[in-house]
PBP superfamily domain-containing protein (Alkalimonas amylolytica), 137 residues
Amino acid sequence: MSYVKAMLAVLLLLSGSVVAEIAIIVHPANNASVDQSELNRLFLGRGNSFSDGSRATPLNLAEGVPAREHFDTQVLNRSSAQLKAYWSRLVFTGKGTPPAEHPNAAAMKAAVAADPSAIGYISASDVDDSIRVVATF
């Protein structure tokens, strides 16, 4: 019985450390600042510009990537299933298109570094000098 408890404790520790912190990233030349309400607005298709009026292009990681799961629940306060249903409704009614998806942190960093209007997110451990961090969650 103690073996099972020990294994459960290890699994809980490992599952919590998959994505410790999410970094919201933009192009290095982008001087925008964002908060959680602005991220909600941008990533839910309710706006397409930063608070300073410059164009914003939100980018998602692919479904199933741990950082995406963390972003959906911790920043957007929705489950992946809720977001999928939300975007399905908007696409069906012609009222919106979900953010483009990138398969991993390297692809996300490359896309954000290439587009001054882009905003995305990655695990904080994947941050480098090719992008600028504007918030962490």
